[in-house]
């Protein structure tokens, strides 16, 4: 019997995708790990890892990779859409092109994967599709509006896909992480425009980028997150929805409140002067 196959996007060193890859390998999977360059996945060295260069914002790149996997295997058993693009900044200060890039990666990147993989899963009448969303797709925070919007779109699309995949016997899982330790803050950078209305909020805006990576805010270890997620989605009955990580409990409580009340609390917290050193390099 051949080994099951997982296909994972966004597998750069130090990120969630790389951690998921290692956990799937430990469970006996062949993993097609993807990123925008092979060099970005240098730490993934196991013989059962097949590295592919994939840009989820490019139709041909996604289609070519999926075609290769199906030429080499019996098919993808678990598809994990993890590739993401972090964005910090106010809506008014964000260039239109930057907003498009966020949505192209975080939302349409998943759509491209679905279009290429789900019909093939449907023909086999088996498969699991996993979308890595965010708690910010359920309740927004200031200073990262395009990221919030891209994840909200992803959540709605995934929930619709889950219903429509029922007759195909393809399972769809939405994972909504809170704060998970990764290299995201290292790769991010932010400089407030000189003419911004929000010059007085510069520290708070930068704080948003770094706070999710600190123990003070309950950040979850990447490998711990990967172990739980892989354990759940590779089980005989994967859950349709899974949320874990820092802030996830707080977000669950806020979601039960009146929407206006929840937004007022979040805005109040966002305006607080952050502690020195908690908003990146001085």
UniProtKB/TrEMBL annotation:
One Gene Ontology molecular-function label: oxidoreductase activity
InterPro entries found in the cross-reference section: NAD(P)-bd_dom_sf (IPR036291), Sc_DH/Rdtase_CS (IPR020904), SDR_fam (IPR002347)
Keyword Cell membrane: no
Entry keyword Oxidoreductase: yes
CDD domains: 17beta-HSD-like_SDR_c
Keyword terms: NADP, Oxidoreductase
PANTHER family: NADPH-DEPENDENT 1-ACYLDIHYDROXYACETONE PHOSPHATE REDUCTASE
Protein known as: NAD-binding protein
Annotated organism of origin: Mycena metata
């Amino acid at each position: 019997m051949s080994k099951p196959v997982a296909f994972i996007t966004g597998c750069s060193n130090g990120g969630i995708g790389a951690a998921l890859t290692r956990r799937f390998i430990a469970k006996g999977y062949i993993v097609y790990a993807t990123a925008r360059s092979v060099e970005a996945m240098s730490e993934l060295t196991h013989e059962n890892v097949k590295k592919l260069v994939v840009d989820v914002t490019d139709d041909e790149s996604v289609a070519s990779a999926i075609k290769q996997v199906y030429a080499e295997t019996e098919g993808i058993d678990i598809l994990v859409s993890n590739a993401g693009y972090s964005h910090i900044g106010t809506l008014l200060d964000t260039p239109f092109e930057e907003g498009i890039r966020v949505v192209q990666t975080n939302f349409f990147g998943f759509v491209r994967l679905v279009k290429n993989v789900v019909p093939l899963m449907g023909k086999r009448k088996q498969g699991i599709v996993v979308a890595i969303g965010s708690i910010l797709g359920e309740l927004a925070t200031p200073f990262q509006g395009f990221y919030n919007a891209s994840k909200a779109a992803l959540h709605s699309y995934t929930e619709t896909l889950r219903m429509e995949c029922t007759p195909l016997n393809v399972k769809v899982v939405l994972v909504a992480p809170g704060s998970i330790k990764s290299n995201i803050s290292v790769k991010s950078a932010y400089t407030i425009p000189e003419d911004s209305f929000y010059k007085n909020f510069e520290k708070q805006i930068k704080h948003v980028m770094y706070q999710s990576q600190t123990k003070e805010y309950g950040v979850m270890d990447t490998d711990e997150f990967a172990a739980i997620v892989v354990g759940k989605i590779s089980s005989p009955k994967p859950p349709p929805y899974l949320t874990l990580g820092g802030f996830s409990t707080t977000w669950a409580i806020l979601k039960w409140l009146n929407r206006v009340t929840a937004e007022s609390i979040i805005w109040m917290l966002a305006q607080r002067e952050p502690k020195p050193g908690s908003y990146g390099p001085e």
